[in-house]
Specification:
This protein has 217 residues and is of the alpha/beta class. The chain has two domains: 141 residues, HAD superfamily/HAD-like (Rossmann fold, 3-Layer(aba) Sandwich), CATH 3.40.50.1000; 66 residues, DNA polymerase, domain 1 (Orthogonal Bundle), CATH 1.10.150.240. It has nine helices and eight strands. The chain has a six-stranded parallel β-sheet, with helices on both faces. A two-stranded antiparallel sheet has the order 2-3. Strand 4, helix 6 and strand 5 form a beta-alpha-beta unit. Helix 1 crosses helix 4 and helix 3 packs across helix 4. The chain is globular and about 55 Å long. The relative contact order is 0.18. The model has no long low-confidence stretch (mean pLDDT 96).
Length: 217
């Protein structure tokens, strides 16, 4: 069956958002009296939503009991509201891929663990309104990735069957999400993680440049 839709992860797949997360989290760590981390550490703190990011940073900084969790979470939320688009940019080849997919009549969706309002903000700031057919961020209405809820919601809204969907992401969370939803799952090498992680989490395919996705339609 030919593919009718591509569901994209956001952070590390569509846009390089690492600096926005790094800046916001390091400011929040400073607010609770803890030292900052180098930006590369955040490649492995991200992926499971803001709460897990805060937990991982605190534990790595020695707060294994998460005594400062509530205070840092609130601080991170405030900083991230300000810096959500700090030096954020689409990855090379992403705009070309989106254009090519739209020309072929492929539906476009986003499934992110970033909060819903922040997901919309980043997408509209970088790609404009109307580029994607549906945007799904973290919400109390659905379990976050790697649960397949967001994928199922998108499929229901767009009238899609599993065999008609490609899921593209850059982390183990994305591979687990796509596979748990039963859709063809592609790992992106330009994001936050490496080939080994994508292979170990059973990506159906792995690509080094966005335009390579067109081979799997």
């Amino acid at each position: 069956m030919s593919k009718k839709a591509v569901i994209f992860d956001l952070d590390g797949t569509l846009t390089d958002t690492l600096k926005s997360i790094w800046k916001s989290a390091n400011l929040a760590l400073a607010d609770v009296g803890l030292p900052p981390f180098d930006i590369d550490r955040y490649r492995y703190f991200v992926g499971d939503g803001a709460a897990e990011l805060v937990k991982r940073a605190l534990i790595a900084d020695g707060d294994k009991e998460l005594v400062l969790f509530d205070k840092m979470s609130e601080s991170y939320r405030k900083h991230f509201e300000k810096y959500v688009n700090y030096e954020v940019r689409p990855y090379e080849g992403i705009r070309e891929l989106l254009h090519a997919l739209k020309e072929k009549g492929i539906l476009l969706a986003v499934n992110s663990n970033k909060p819903q309002d922040r997901t919309v903000n980043v997408i509209e700031e970088n790609f404009g309104k109307g580029t994607f057919d549906i945007l799904v961020g973290q919400s109390d209405e659905r379990a976050r990735k790697p649960a397949p809820d967001g994928v199922f919601h998108i499929m229901e809204r767009l009238g899609l069957m599993k065999d008609e969907v490609i899921y593209l992401g850059d982390t183990c969370v994305d591979m687990k999400t796509g596979r748990s939803a039963g859709v063809f799952t592609i790992g992106a090498l330009w994001g936050f993680r490496d080939r080994q992680e994508l292979e170990e989490n059973h990506a159906d395919a792995i690509i080094a440049h966005p335009m390579e996705l067109l081979e799997y339609l």
